[in-house]
């Protein structure tokens, strides 16, 4: 008799078949009579990525007992919204590398990237309407509006060394965590659960998204370009005052502070090695990781509303996976 304990599946392994169905929806919904739209859309979607947002839709809906086909449409919708934000982000940030490949704006130009991002946004709204549920439209319309506000808030913070930790966290909540929140909330909406469970799922997603972005920001000073799939130091080049820099300024010497201030103001990547040394010496990286761990713990606390299942177990795994990563 074989008494071997079955290997625990990762969330992506558990949902591999369902994610394949989401990919089928994505390919179908990307179709356009305009060749350039097809080319750019398939280029950016084909680059892969972690697909955490559609995964959240699937896991939350299944954890709450929903098995309808609408979950695939909604999972694809949030991926379209996310992809549209990436296209616009890369134009604003003048990025040339994402997921280990040239960005769409580097390949096809800024104008085409912005317009295809608009196409993906408008296609996502067609998909929202297709499920004929006003609550779904309400959740995603709100999310896209808040994300746009987050983009503008981040623009206001750029090259501002006097940005506060609170203003930085507000950008994260709006720009990144809001779509994680909406994705988890959608699973609850599809399952027609009560408001308490819906809010718990939404809070889970928001905390997970915050933890994810905190780690993203520290990896810009701790990672390697080959692993990250983007250029190390991009945040500094763009003048983004992220938490590692804000903490390093508050903890470092006056000389350290002035060096970092000047680098933020001027997007000075030439001093990146010195700045990396400062954020490490001041403990700013570990403090940022601790902040991410605190958010991950808050996320897991929200899942007490869910009945035991393999899908709940997968949701409990996600925060740790978001933190313990190199890209």
Secondary structure topology:
Elements: H1 11-14, H2 16-30, H3 35-45, H4 52-63, H5 70-93, E1 97-98, E2 101-102, H6 104-108, H7 110-130, H8 134-157, H9 165-190, H10 195-222, H11 225-228, H12 234-237, H13 243-251, H14 254-266, H15 272-281, H16 284-301, H17 310-323
Antiparallel strand pairs: 1-2
**Residue runs with pLDDT of under 50 for 5 or more positions:** 1-6
What spatial order of strands do you see in the largest sheet? 1-2
Structural class: mainly alpha
N-to-C series of helices and strands: HHHHHEEHHHHHHHHHHHH
Q: How many helix segments? A: 17
Largest sheet: 2 strands, antiparallel
The helix fraction, in percent, is over 70%
The count of DSSP E runs of length 2 or more, i.e. the number of strands, is 2
CATH homologous superfamily descriptor: Farnesyl Diphosphate Synthase
What is the fold named in CATH at topology level? Farnesyl Diphosphate Synthase
Share in β-strands: under 5%
Shape: globular
- First CA to last CA: what distance? 41 Å
Q: What is the name of the CATH architecture? A: Orthogonal Bundle
Mean pLDDT: 90
Rg estimate, integer Å: 20 Å
CATH top level is Mainly Alpha
Number of domains: 1
Describe the structure concisely for a colleague.
The chain has about 325 residues and is mainly alpha-helical.
Key structural traits:
globular, mainly alpha, 74% helix, EC 2.5.1.90, 327 residues, Farnesyl Diphosphate Synthase, disordered N terminus, Polyprenyl_synt_CS, 2 strands, two-stranded antiparallel ribbon
């Amino acid at each position: 008799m074989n008494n071997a304990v079955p290997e625990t599946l990762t969330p992506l392994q558990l949902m591999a078949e369902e994610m394949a169905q989401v990919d089928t929806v994505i390919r179908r919904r990307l179709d356009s009579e305009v060749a350039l739209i097809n080319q750019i859309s398939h280029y950016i979607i084909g680059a892969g990525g972690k697909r955490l947002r559609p995964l959240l839709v699937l896991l939350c809906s299944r954890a709450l007992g929903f098995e309808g086909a609408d979950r695939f449409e909604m999972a694809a919708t949030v991926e379209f919204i996310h992809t549209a934000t990436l296209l616009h982000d890369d134009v604003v940030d003048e990025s040339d590398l994402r997921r280990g490949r040239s960005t769409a704006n580097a390949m096809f130009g800024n104008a085409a990237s912005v317009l295809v991002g608009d196409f993906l946004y408008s296609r996502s709204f067609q998909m929202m309407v297709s499920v004929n549920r006003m609550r779904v439209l309400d959740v995603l319309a709100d999310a896209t509006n808040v994300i746009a506000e987050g983009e503008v808030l981040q623009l206001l913070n750029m090259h501002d060394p006097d940005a506060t930790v609170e203003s930085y966290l507000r950008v994260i909540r709006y720009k990144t965590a809001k779509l994680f929140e909406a994705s988890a909330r959608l699973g609850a909406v599809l399952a027609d659960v009560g408001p308490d469970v819906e809010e718990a799922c939404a809070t889970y997603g928001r905390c997970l998204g915050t933890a994810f972005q905190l780690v993203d920001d520290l990896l810009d000073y701790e990672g390697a370009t080959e692993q990250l799939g983007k250029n190390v130091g991009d945040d500094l080049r763009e003048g983004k005052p992220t938490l590692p820099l804000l903490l390093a300024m508050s903890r470092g010497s006056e000389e350290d502070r002035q060096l970092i201030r000047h680098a933020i103001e001027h997007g000075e990547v030439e001093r990146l090695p010195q700045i990396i040394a400062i954020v490490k010496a001041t403990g700013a990286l570990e403090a940022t990781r601790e902040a991410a761990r605190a958010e991950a713990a808050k996320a897991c606390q929200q899942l007490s509303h869910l009945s035991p299942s393999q899908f709940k177990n997968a949701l409990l795994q996600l925060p740790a996976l978001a933190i313990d990563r190199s890209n």
